[in-house]
C-alpha cells in the first residue's frame, strides 16, 4: 500500500502529503488539502461595488466537450495519424467540404470530383489512386429522390410512394456502381456518407406520420438500403452523417428550413443573397433567426473521416479492457457501503448500469474484459449478486479475474500474459488516481481512464480504438479461445513437454487465399496488420497492396488450428511468391505447440508443387524490436542460414532437403 514520506504546507496554506509506492519508489503521488469553499460574504473585498441586477448579468453558458470530441473521443489515441491525401466525390455539399477542409487542414491535400445524378467519373482521379489514403463519397439526395417529391400533394396518390422508393433504389445502385470504380479497380478505401433525414414529418396528417407517405421515413429507408449496398463492396464503409447532424442539432445545420426537403444540405451555403436585393422590409441575416453551427459541423465531419480511417487501419487498437470494482463497476466500496445492516445501499441507476451494458458491447466486438481489484475474492464472489442488481453481469462474463491484494500493475501484467497481448493494447479503468498513477508508472503503455464516471462509457464505446472494421469469426470466438488457452496452459504445467504435445490432439487446416472475395481474406488482413511478435518482417499491408500481390502471382496460405481445448480459428498467414516465403505471421496464442514448423513444411510443399525437380526454397527475417518469438522458426524447420543482405537474414532449404514435420500434429 502507499506510504507517506513527507508533509508540508504550501504558500496557500494547504497541507500537502507526498505518498510513495513501496514496490515502485520512483512513483509518487501528492495529496493536496481541499480548503472549504467560502461564501460570498466570507471573501475579502478590497473595493465595495454595488451588485448588478439579475437582469444585467447573463447566465453563464455551460461548457463542455466540442461536438467533434464528444462524438469521436480522442482519449485512447496514442499514435498521431497523418492523413496525407483525400479524394472527395459528391455534390454541392461535398464542394463545401472541399472549400472549407482544405483551409482548415492544410496538412492534408483534398482533391474534388463533382458528382450529380448518374454521371461518369474520370478514368483516373486528379492524382494516382494509390496516393490517396481514402475516398469520401457523398451521393446527393435530390438526385436519388428527384424533384417529384417537391409536389407534396402527390403523396396522397396511390402508388406514388412505391414508385419513388423503387426508382430511388435503382438510382442508388447506378450511382454507387459509377462512383465506386476506383474502389473496384484499385481497392481504394472508401467511406460513403448517408443522407441527412428531414427534421420533421412531411406526412399529410398526424395519422400518417412515420408511414410510407412520410418523406422522413422514406429517407430513413434509403439510408438502410444504402448501408446494405455499401456493405456489398470490399474495403468500403458507411459513415453516419445523419447521426452527426442529429447530435449537433439539425436546426443548426440542415437547410430544410428554407429549401427543398430533398436538397439535404446545409443552411450556410452561398445561395442566400438577399442582402444584395432591395426590399420594402429588409431581411435580417439568416443567423439572427437560425443560428448556424458551421464550424462544429465541419470539425465533426472531418473528425469522423479520420477516426473511421484509424479504425480501418487498426491504429492503437484496444484488445482488452481491465476494470476495477469499487467505485468503478458499482458505486462505493463493497465492504463499506453494502453491509446487510446498512440500508439503503447505493443506487445502480445511471453510470453503473451503463458500464455493465458497455462491457457486453465490448465483448460483442471481440474485446476481452477482465477484473483487477484490491479486494477479498471470496467476499466479492459471495456478495456479487447482492451488489449487482439487476443481475445483468456476472463474474463469468470476464475472461480473467484478479481479485487479491497484489499490486495492480503486477495483476495486469499477468492478464497480458494470459491474453497473449502487450500492455499497449490494454485500457485500465479505475476510479482511484493513485492506482491509475501506479499502473501508468509501472506499465506506461497501458492507457488508464476512470476518474470521471460520466466519461467512461462514452470513451469505451465511441472511441475509434475500440471499434472494428468488420467482425470476423475469430473475433466472435475470442473469449472462448482465451478460456481454452488458459486451461491449456494450466494443463501444460502438470505434464512434461512431449506428453503434453501428444495430448493436445492438434489439427491444422489450410486455406489458399487467391482472391479478396474469399470470406477468410478479412481475417487474414486483420491478423497481418495487428501481429507484431510472430511477424517475420513487420510489414503492414493495405487492401490495395494485397490485391496487387495476388494479381502478380503472389499466394497467401492461411491456416486454422484446433486442439482438445478449443478451436483457435484462423491464426496464421504466409505470403508466398516464386520460391520464397516472403512473410510469415502467426498469432502467439498457438505458439509453443510446434504449429509454426508444421506450417512451414506445408508452405514448402505448396511452393515445390508448382515446379518440377529439386527446388530450393528461400525465406527471410527482418528483425524488429518485437518479433523475437519468430526469429528461429526457419532454423527449427530445417533451413540453413546464409549471409544476410542489407541487414535482412536469409535462409534456404536445399532442393534435396525436406523440412521438419512434427508428428503430434495432423493435417485436417
From TrEMBL:
Q: Where is the composition biased (Pro residues)?
A: 51-60
Which residue intervals make up region (Disordered)?
39-60
Question: Which Gene3D superfamilies does the record cross-reference, listed alphabetically?
Answer: HAD superfamily/HAD-like, SGNH hydrolase
Among the Pfam families in the record, one is Hydrolase
The name of this protein is: Phosphatase IIIC
Q: Which organism is it from?
A: Acetobacter malorum DSM 14337
Amino acid at each position: 500500500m502507499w506510504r507517506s514520506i513527507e508533509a508540508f504546507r504550501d504558500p496557500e496554506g494547504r497541507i500537502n502529503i507526498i505518498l510513495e509506492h513501496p514496490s515502485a519508489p520512483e512513483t509518487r503521488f501528492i495529496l493536496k488539502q481541499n480548503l472549504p469553499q467560502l461564501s460570498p460574504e466570507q471573501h475579502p473585498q478590497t473595493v465595495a461595488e454595488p451588485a448588478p441586477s439579475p437582469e444585467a448579468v447573463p447566465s453563464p453558458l455551460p461548457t463542455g466537450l466540442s461536438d467533434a470530441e464528444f462524438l469521436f473521443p480522442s482519449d485512447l489515441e496514442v499514435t498521431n495519424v497523418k492523413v496525407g491525401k483525400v479524394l472527395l466525390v459528391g455534390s454541392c455539399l461535398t464542394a463545401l467540404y472541399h472549400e472549407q477542409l482544405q483551409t482548415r487542414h492544410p496538412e492534408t491535400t483534398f482533391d474534388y470530383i463533382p458528382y450529380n445524378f448518374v454521371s461518369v467519373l474520370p478514368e483516373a482521379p486528379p492524382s494516382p489512386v494509390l496516393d490517396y489514403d481514402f475516398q469520401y463519397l457523398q451521393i446527393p439526395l435530390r438526385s436519388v429522390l428527384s424533384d417529384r417529391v417537391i409536389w407534396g400533394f402527390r403523396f396522397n396518390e396511390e402508388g406514388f410512394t412505391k414508385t419513388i422508393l423503387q426508382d430511388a433504389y435503382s438510382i442508388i445502385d447506378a450511382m454507387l456502381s459509377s462512383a465506386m470504380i476506383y474502389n473496384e479497380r484499385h481497392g481504394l478505401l472508401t467511406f460513403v456518407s448517408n443522407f441527412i433525414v428531414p427534421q420533421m414529418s412531411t406526412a399529410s396528417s398526424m395519422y400518417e406520420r412515420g408511414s410510407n407517405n412520410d418523406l422522413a421515413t422514406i429517407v430513413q429507408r434509403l439510408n438502410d438500403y444504402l448501408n446494405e449496398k455499401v456493405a456489398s463492396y470490399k474495403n468500403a464503409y458507411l459513415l453516419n452523417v445523419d447521426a452527426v447532424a442529429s447530435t449537433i442539432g439539425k436546426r443548426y445545420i440542415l437547410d430544410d428550413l428554407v429549401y427543398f426537403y430533398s436538397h439535404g444540405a446545409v443552411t450556410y451555403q452561398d445561395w442566400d443573397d438577399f442582402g444584395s436585393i432591395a426590399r420594402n422590409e429588409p431581411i435580417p441575416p439568416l443567423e439572427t433567426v437560425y443560428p448556424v453551427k458551421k464550424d462544429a459541423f465541419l470539425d465533426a465531419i472531418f473528425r469522423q473521416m479520420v477516426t473511421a480511417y484509424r479504425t480501418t487501419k487498426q491504429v492503437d487498437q484496444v484488445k482488452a479492457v481491465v476494470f476495477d470494482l469499487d467505485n468503478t463497476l458499482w458505486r462505493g466500496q463493497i465492504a463499506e457501503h453494502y453491509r446487510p445492516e446498512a440500508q439503503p445501499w447505493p443506487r445502480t441507476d445511471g453510470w453503473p448500469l451503463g458500464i455493465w451494458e458497455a462491457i457486453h458491447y465490448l465483448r460483442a466486438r471481440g474485446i476481452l474484459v477482465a477484473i483487477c481489484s484490491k479486494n477479498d475474492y471470496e467476499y466479492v464472489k459471495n456478495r456479487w449478486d447482492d451488489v449487482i442488481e439487476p443481475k445483468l453481469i456476472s463474474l463469468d462474463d470476464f475472461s480473467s479475474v484478479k481479485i487479491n491484494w497484489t499490486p495492480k500493475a503486477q495483476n495486469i501484467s499477468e492478464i497480458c500474459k494470459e491474453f497473449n497481448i502487450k500492455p499497449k493494447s490494454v485500457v485500465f479503468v479505475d476510479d482511484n488516481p493513485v492506482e491509475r498513477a501506479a499502473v501508468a508508472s509501472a506499465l506506461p503503455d497501458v492507457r488508464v481512464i476512470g476518474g470521471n464516471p460520466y466519461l467512461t462509457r462514452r470513451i469505451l464505446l465511441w472511441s475509434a480504438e475500440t471499434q472494428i472494421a468488420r467482425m470476423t469469426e475469430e473475433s466472435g470466438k475470442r473469449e472462448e479461445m482465451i478460456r481454452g488457452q488458459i486451461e491449456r496452459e494450466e494443463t501444460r504445467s502438470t505434464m512434461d513437454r512431449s506428453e503434453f504435445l501428444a495430448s493436445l490432439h492438434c489439427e491444422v487446416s489450410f486455406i489458399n487465399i487467391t482472391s479478396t472475395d474469399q470470406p477468410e481474406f478479412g481475417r487474414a488482413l486483420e491478423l497481418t496488420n495487428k501481429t507484431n511478435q510472430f511477424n517475420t518482417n513487420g510489414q503492414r499491408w493495405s487492401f490495395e497492396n494485397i490485391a496487387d500481390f495476388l494479381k502478380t502471382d503472389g499466394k497467401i496460405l492461411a491456416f486454422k488450428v484446433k486442439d482438445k481445448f478449443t478451436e483457435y480459428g484462423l491464426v496464421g498467414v504466409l505470403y508466398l511468391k516464386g520460391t520464397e516465403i516472403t512473410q510469415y505471421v502467426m498469432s502467439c496464442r498457438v505458439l509453443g505447440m510446434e504449429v509454426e514448423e508444421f506450417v512451414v513444411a506445408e508452405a514448402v510443399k505448396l511452393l515445390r508443387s508448382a515446379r518440377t525437380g529439386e527446388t530450393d526454397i528461400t525465406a527471410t527475417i527482418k528483425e524488429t524490436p518485437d518479433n523475437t518469438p519468430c526469429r528461429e522458426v526457419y532454423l527449427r524447420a530445417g533451413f540453413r542460414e546464409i549471409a544476410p543482405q542489407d541487414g535482412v537474414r536469409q535462409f534456404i532449404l536445399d532442393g534435396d532437403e525436406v523440412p521438419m514435420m512434427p508428428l503430434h500434429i495432423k493435417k485436417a
